[in-house]
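Quick one, tokens below. Sequence please?
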């Protein structure tokens, strides 16, 4: 089972936002990831604050409360939509945490071929366990 997935939505195209929300919903329902994070950034924040259909889909994605969607506070303030996003369910008051806190939390984007390879490998050999050593440790 894969551990973490980060979905970043920064497009102003409503169809792309809808696709990304549906993708996130399907990923959550599949249970293949332990941790799913959803970040809205830039024009996508403005679009979702104005579009009721996307808001309904968004509520469906986050309704179980397993994760909290995040929106950029600077963009929210620039567009004047911070209050609206918070009403929908976004956290916009996120403060930057120290880098050391996130050093071991790395997210990777897998290509379609990479996902296929991992699925086939797991079918043949079972769950994949990696014991990686950092090159800087002695």
């Amino acid at each position: 089972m894969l551990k973490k997935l980060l979905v970043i939505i920064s497009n102003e195209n409503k169809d792309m936002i809808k696709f990304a929300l549906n993708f996130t919903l399907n990923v959550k329902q599949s249970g293949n990831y332990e941790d799913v994070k959803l970040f809205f950034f830039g024009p996508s924040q403005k679009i979702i604050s104005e579009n009721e259909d996307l808001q309904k889909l968004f509520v469906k994605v986050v309704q179980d409360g397993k994760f909290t969607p995040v929106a950029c506070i600077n963009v929210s303030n620039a567009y004047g939509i911070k209050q609206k996003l918070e009403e929908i369910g976004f956290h916009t008051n996120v403060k930057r945490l120290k880098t050391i806190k996130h050093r071991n939390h790395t997210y990777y984007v897998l290509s379609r071929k990479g996902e296929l390879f991992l699925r086939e490998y797991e079918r043949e050999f079972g769950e994949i366990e990696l014991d990686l050593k950092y090159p800087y440790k002695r």
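Confidence is low (pLDDT under 50) at residues 96-104. DSSP finds six helices and three strands in the chain.
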